[in-house]
Every structure is written in C-alpha cells, then in structure tokens.
Design goal:
Blueprint: E1 2-6, E2 13-18, E3 21-27, H1 36-51, E4 59-63, H2 69-86, E5 90-93, H3 95-100, E6 111-116, E7 122-128, E8 132-137, H4 140-146, E9 154-157, H5 163-168, E10 174-177, H6 180-191, E11 202-204, E12 207-209
Parallel strand pairs: 1-4, 4-5, 6-9, 9-10
Antiparallel strand pairs: 1-2, 2-3, 6-7, 7-8, 11-12
Helix pairs in contact: 1-2
Length: 210
C-alpha cells in the first residue's frame, strides 16, 4: 500500500492507494478544528485503524509545495517521522512536476499552473524554458504589476478559483480544475522509482527559501 499526503490543497488529506487504485481518503481539517497541527496525528490514527494498514505501507509520498508554510512544514515533518519510525521509503513531489505531465509540449509556454492552498494562500507557477517555472505568491499588487494574462490561453488549478481570479482568465480558452489524487494515481508510479531528498517549496516575499 502507498500513503499519499496532499499538503498543498485548501483541505489537506491523506489518500491510500493499493495496486494503482484509490482505496480511501480522509480530510485532515474539519469544521470543529481547522488547524492541521491539532488534527494530523488523530486523523492519521483514525485512517490507519479504519483501513488496517499499520504493517502494509510500502511507500510514502507528499506534495512539497508551493503551499501554506504551516501545512508544508507540519505535513512533511509528520511523514518524515512516519518514514523513520516504520522504515518506509519517503518521496517528495513538487506540484509543478506532477502537473506538468498534463501539458503538451506545444502548450507549455502558454499554460499557467495555479495552486490554491490552506490559510487562503494562493500561488501561480509561470512557465519558462524546458518545463521550469517561476513560482510567485499571489497578491493584488503582484497580479496587477507582474503578469500579462493575455499571454496565456490555458490554466491548470487544483481547486476552484475565486471570482476575482476567474475574471483574469476571460481571454483563456481552457481552465482545468484537476483532482490531485487521480493525477497522482495515473502518473506517479512510473515517474518515481527511488527515494529522494525532500525539498519543501516555501515562498516568502516572493522569494524561494528552504
């Protein structure tokens, strides 16, 4: 079995896979408590008990960002601890690596990736050459001054965009809202074959720091 942690979405969750199938998922946050720090251990234990995977996990995966600093820090730390304590291989996946697989080569330069994260934090991944991206945290000032949205005709996002952001894409032909765990299930098993160093993508004042 494989345990996947989506750390970047507005509602982080654990997803369990077996034989390339999604078995079950559980949201970490709930209406009674919206702090990932308070919920992650309890929700993991509930998830483990319900699915009886205590000794069946073979690999751990986590999205490394961009996203909320708190969600990334706590989520990755939790999975690191699980990896060490249970001696399970641990893999980190940048959002851009996962979603760039969906983009045709001819469409790369005109496709934006958007990340809607917890704590009302949002990021845009701006394409540059050879499937590389500049990642920026979205603010009103940044949107007004730094992006010419008329250059882009396509957008891939992990969550429904706010009405304010949707207006920015009025000239686009395609806006796709993608289910992260389905994309993970379709692509990840053929891409990641060895354990890698986890490098969280933290963005502060629109600078990358580790």
């Amino acid at each position: 079995m494989i345990l996947f942690l989506d750390t970047i979405s507005p509602f982080p969750k654990f997803v369990l896979f077996h034989n390339n199938n999604i078995i079950q998922s559980i949201h970490i946050l709930d209406k009674s408590n919206m702090k990932i720090s308070d919920n992650i251990v309890l929700k993991y234990l509930i998830f483990e008990r319900e699915n009886n995977f205590q000794d069946k996990l073979r690999k751990l995966f986590v999205l490394t960002g961009p996203g909320s600093y708190t969600a990334l820090r706590l989520g990755i730390s939790f999975m690191y601890g699980l990896s060490i304590s249970k001696k399970i291989p641990f893999f980190g996946i940048p959002y851009t690596s996962l979603f760039s697989n969906l983009i045709k080569e001819n469409d790369f330069s005109k496709t934006l990736l958007f990340v809607c994260s917890s704590n009302d934090q949002n990021f845009v991944c701006i394409p540059i050459k050879k499937k590389k991206y500049i990642i920026r945290k979205i603010t009103k000032d940044f949107l007004c001054k730094n992006i010419d949205f008329n250059k882009y005709t396509k957008c891939i996002a992990n969550n429904k965009l706010s009405k304010e952001f949707e207006k920015l894409f009025k000239n686009q032909n395609e806006l796709h809202i993608i289910n992260i765990e389905e994309i993970f299930n379709n692509y990840i098993f053929s891409v990641f074959e060895k354990e890698e160093i986890i490098k969280p993508i933290y963005i502060s004042d629109n600078n990358l720091f580790n």
